[in-house]
């Protein structure tokens, strides 16, 4: 049953006081103006974003009038439905990796420390568990310890890691990895790229070059390019998305470190502002701490509701 799925229990554990605060607003209390003020404050305070919060509240007010609702608890179901709709209206929300061509290439991009290498390791382990063959490409050739870090993930998951020496061309590493995958018939190449500030144009050009190599060498081109966004950064992480999208068209977001944020509303804000699907959510530092993003499961966990 979906209610026991990893996402629900992990989000419930992680979803902290913020979501409890929102959830507790829906109770036996009479519906007063104070409820609307408090709901708005909590949504905006929880990183849902001003525009999305205002829209949600105006829609919910309409429901309250139409249905002549007297107690806040009667609005909870409708509110959950609105949150799910907000997320579901973005095409591809929660869809699994497209690994239809062999080899398929999955690029992980993002600013420094967002969780790319960890996500690469987790996704490799997840695909392996699904019976897929995987190669990891250590395209972070900047940071001295980067390929060692990826190799440790490779060892943990028993996945081959293609790396070159520190300072070498990251596009060359990706080229090598694709050739190795072709030679071995490996189904998926997961590319861990270097963290980069989206404002550094030379680094963004380098990413575009990696994209061109993948487009040329992989049969399906850039299958997936996922922006790994740190949930703790909240809306401060948004400026980067546009710049990354320009260097390499993004196919979605991995929302990492959700277990560390005190503001679970960021997922809704990503949907509204970035119009990019959240594909996976990171909920810890361990191999298994990644889950496909399911809007109904996520919202029901946030609002502490049973899944329908
Ligand atoms: N709690 C928690 N920690 C995470 C998660 N994902 C990554 N981390 C931690 O965040 C830190 C940075 O993760 P990395 O995977 O090295 O990030 P990165 O984007 O590869 O970093 P650079 O290569 O330096 O740009 C590490 O300490 C990870 O263990 C997550 O979902 N939850
Ligand atoms: Mg890294």
Low-confidence stretches: none
Instruction: Tell me what portion of residues adopts beta-strand conformation.
Output: 5-15%
Based on Cα principal axes, name the global outline.
elongated
Q: Structural class of the helix and strand makeup?
A: alpha/beta
Main sheet summary? 8 strands, mixed
Number of strands: 8
By oligomeric state, this entry counts as: single chain
Task: Give the name of the CATH superfamily of the domain at 104-250.
Answer: P-loop containing nucleotide triphosphate hydrolases
Helix-strand topology string: HHHHHEHEHEHEHEHEHEEH
For the record, the CATH architecture of the domain at 104-250 stands as 3-Layer(aba) Sandwich
Gyration radius, in Å: 21 Å
Each distinct ligand: guanosine-5'-triphosphate, magnesium ion
What is the CATH fold-level name of the domain at 104-250? Rossmann fold
What does this molecule look like?
The structure is a single chain. This protein is α/β, with parallel strands linked by helices and 308 residues long. The chain has a domain at 104-250: Rossmann fold (3-Layer(aba) Sandwich), CATH 3.40.50.300. It has twelve helices and eight strands. Strands 3-2-4-1-5-6-7-8 form an eight-stranded mixed sheet, sandwiched between helices. Helix 2 packs antiparallel against helix 3, helix 4 (50-66) packs across helix 5 and helix 5 (76-88) packs antiparallel against helix 12 (295-302). The site of magnesium ion (MG) has 6 residues, from helix 6.
